Sequence to fold (177 residues):
Amino acid sequence: MRFDLLKVLLVDDNQHMRILLNEILRAIGVRHVFEAVDGVEALAVMRQTSIDVVITDLSMGPVDGLHLVQLLRRAPESPNPYTPVIMITGHSTERRVQEARDVGVNEFLAKPVTARAVVDRLTQLIENPRPFVRSSDYFGPDRRRRDNPRHKGPWRRADDARTTYVDVAEPKHTPRA
Fold:
């Protein structure tokens, strides 16, 4: 993985957390790390520099991580609505994870943060990028993580009519003659 080519923007109002993340990123080879203390400053940095990945805290003011992602994904003046976003928070309740997913966050990372978790999320963004989806009330990465071939409910995806789902059973062992 060529982390040295990435330009990463850290957005957190806590200086200690920015220092920790900066050290983790530098240890894995990221050479271009930019910092912002809130969403307003983050958007200003993104207007000046082409950023590859945003790592943002959820809770900060005056513009928190959720509002930052909303502006990044939907505002007409957004510098790049397709920028991958990793949301970091100490409040990793199911409700918070769903809120982050619903505004267009790509990956979610619960505190305390480890170097392994940061590497895993960055690798996931790079090796398995999800397509972006636009609907009347959402723009962001496809929120579905996988297709379930055993799904028994109604097919509501636009591409379901063009897709055939095959139930793949375990291959049966055939004895040799």
Summary: Helices lie at 15-27, 39-48, 65-74, 94-103, 115-127.
